[in-house]
Structures are given as C-alpha cells and as structure tokens.
Amino acid sequence: MRYLSFLILLVLIGCSSDPSNQKSTDPATADKQTTSDKAIQLAENWLTNPADEFALTLNKAQELITAKGSHIRIPANAFMRKDGSQPTGKARLVFNEFQTEGEIIASGFPMRYKTPKGDTIQFQSAGMFEIRAYEGDEELELKKGKSIEVELATPSSGMYNFYQLDDNTRAWTEKASNLSPVPNRYLEEQEARLKELETITASKPKKPVEHSPSDRLFDIKVDPKKYTEFQEMGGVMWKYVGKKKESDPAANPKLFHEKYEFMRLSPKAGEDMIYEVAFSSKDDTITLDLAPVFPGKLKAKNEKRLKEKIAKFNAAMKEQEKVRQQQRNESQLLRLFNVDKLGVYNYDRQYKEGNIVPVLAQFTFEGKPLSDYPLASVYLIPEGKMAVIQYDLGSAQAFAFDPFERNRLIAVIGENEVYSLSNKEFQALHLDRFKNRPAKIDLHRFQKEVKTGKDLDAILASK
C-alpha cells in the first residue's frame, strides 16, 4: 500500500562487511543508481503490497500482531505531530512486510548498499518492513526517547545486519550487525492457551431436560456442608432420565424411603444437564441418571446462568479460532529490534555468488530492445536466495550470473506490463558460452493482470 503524503519511512537491512562479491567502484555507479531509482519508482507507482493497518489508542500501550505473524509493541504517548504537539484525533499505524522476491520488487526499495569504503554490494534479505503512523492524513513522528519494539517474522536463519533507509537519499545506513533470530516464544504460549480453552469448549452447554406436569419429580435431601456439589442445587427437583425402568424411583417407591449414607454427583460424560448420582447404603449402591428441573424462580435463575455459560462457551470458541489463526500465521523464527524512528528497515547480508559469468546482456521484450523502455528494470532472481539483482539500461552490460543457481528473470516495463524468463528458458540460452561477450536475452510478456508483489511471486512460482 502506498501513502503519498506524510510518509514515515524506516528501512533496516543486514549485510556482511565482505565486499568481495557484487561490488562496484565504477565512478559512473552514481549515475546508474539514479537511473535505477527512477526505474524502481516507476514500478512502485503501480505495484503494491497490501499493508496491515491498526487503530491506535494514543494514551495506552499496545501490542499488535500482523497478518504475517510479526509482533509490534508501542508504548503509551509515543507519537507527536511534526510541530511537536500532542496528537488528539484518530490515529493509525500502517505496517508493511516484504518477505518474498515479488514483494521486494513491488516495494520499490533499492537492494544495494554502498559501504563506508565506497563499494556497492548486493543485498540478500531476511525480511524488510515499513512502519508509519498517521493522524488523519498527517504524518506522525516518534517522540524523542520513545521506541517501538518490532519482532519481525523471518523466513531465514543465520546472522544478518540491520539497516535503515534514508527517505531522501534512498541510501541504507547500517544500524546493527551480526544479528541472529530467536525461536518464536508465542507458539508455546498459544498452545498452552488452546489447552485452557479446550476445557471450556469440550462440550457445548445444553438446555435443561424438558418436563411435563405428569412427570414424577422428586427432591434429594442432603447436608450441603457435607455435599458441596449440591450447594447450588437448593430447591432443585429431579427427574429420572435413565433407560432402566427398575431404577426409576417412580416405578420403585422403595427407593424413596431408603436412607443413604453416602452420595456422589458427577456430570454424565458427554452431557451438560444430566448427572450420574450414586446412592450408597449399608447393603447396596445404586446409580441413577438424573436431570435437574428448575421450578418457579429457579427456572429464571437457571436460564440466566445457562445464557452466561453459552456466552462464555461462544467467546472461548471465537478465541480458539483466533489463536489457531495466529498459530497458522506465526513464523518459527523472529528478529527483534527497537526502532526510534518511523520508516523502512531491512535485515540483510551480502549476496555472495559462486563462479559468476559476466555477459554483455542485450535484453529484449518479445523482440523490442531495452532502449525503447529507458525506465524499465530487469531483475535476476536466484531461487531460494531472497536476492533481487536489478539491471537497467545503464547497467545491462554488467549482467552476471552463477550458472549453478536456478536463475529466473522478471522485467517490469510499465503498468501491468511484466515480462519473464523461467529457469528452463534461461538455461536454454547457454549464456555460460557468452562470457564477456554480447548475448541476446529475450523475455516473454506475462498475459495476466499484475498489481501486487504476490502476483510477481505467482509468476516466479509458475515457471
């Protein structure tokens, strides 16, 4: 989701300090990067990544959970307007995560980093996010001394550096290095909560057993101090609901006149309003299936209690589904960092290729040359590396690839105009035979509508 005004941009990227691969010290690099940035901005004008949006309670601390399983903790009174005043209206937090190659392309954020030594290296991402806050349409900022804790769901293990993107220069700044992910503690907490909820939802509350005026009802006289389970049963009448006629007190009056020394009451398995009541005397023990009948005022009281039990049951069922959905969204690993400024952040490290083959690429799009599309970008995407290597009109002849990777190409030309080349098609070109020589690379147009990063991922998955 793109917000054109009041942008609060944070970018963190992890990167290794080894500049041996994917680097450039060419003085013309700055101009090439400017062209690339324009090409990226062309893509971001129409490609989107749907973001999570949360209503903020400004004077209270909040914990938010995104659709992808990231956790965000915001302290109370964390935001201010640009003039330093306190926001008082409706505010919202917008959080966007980029965890796939398609989402990274659609984000419009560069995936190159210029080291303090002046070398330019290619990023390999472990997750990128963008965090912003607004009051109405006005951008908010974090107050000095306030920070937001972000536990970012990550698809990657291993150590990565953390980077922030400058809104104006679109250059990355390293914030921390060699950060490892941690196991997701929320998974264990959610499992424990589900077990608690299962005790409530094991059986749905049922209405009392129906009775008619002709039913033979009876009372059970007990000492409520001795039999505490009967403390809430005062005034309740009982109806036999068992299947054995000889055990029906109505058919066997002797049972009514027996004095019992011990009694036990317990809910019948799988039932809610039927009890097994065991009566023990010196000579015998009988067990009856009995249902309570609530006469007069007790009926209204019981109906109220039943309504409360059903409401509790329904709330537990709803929470169960919510927790299960959270479990489905949770990542096994999280990356934790506190950000003191809103914007774009990225966990990255240097993408290291093996034995790369440089080729003077001549990109064409169903025969049309790249020169016809001066702001187009072609992205080399090695499978499973979370690396998106961008080439444009100014850098096409610096194209290089690792022949031992499963390489794919996607080109973003203009609105809903995307071209691609599968790994199979890429291999069929035998580009390893064109080392340091010109080679034509013709991409095919994708015919379906493309609007989001997920659509780009679908192209990559279909090839």
Give structural notes.
This protein has helices at residues 29-44, 101-107, 186-201, 254-257, 297-329, 423-428, 453-462; strands at 52-56, 62-65, 71-74, 79-80, 91-98, 112-114, 120-135, 138-139, 141-142, 148-154, 160-165, 172-179, 182-183, 237-240, 262-267, 275-280, 285-293, 333-339, 343-350, 357-358, 360-365, 368-369, 377-382, 389-391, 400-401, 407-414, 417-421, 438-445. The chain has 463 residues and is of the alpha+beta class. Strands 1, 5, 6, 7, 8, 11, 12 and 19 form an 8-stranded antiparallel beta sheet that branches. The protein has a domain at 29-184 and 331-442.
Instruction: Estimate percent helicity.
Output: 10-25%
The dominant shape is elongated
Low-confidence stretches are 1-36, 38-43
What is the oligomeric state here? Answer: single chain
Structural class: alpha+beta
Measure the end-to-end span. 27 Å
Q: What value does the Rg take, in angstroms?
A: 34 Å
Mean pLDDT: 83
Bin the strand percentage. Answer: 25-35%
Total number of helices: 7
β-strand number: 28
Task: Report the major sheet.
Answer: 8 strands, antiparallel
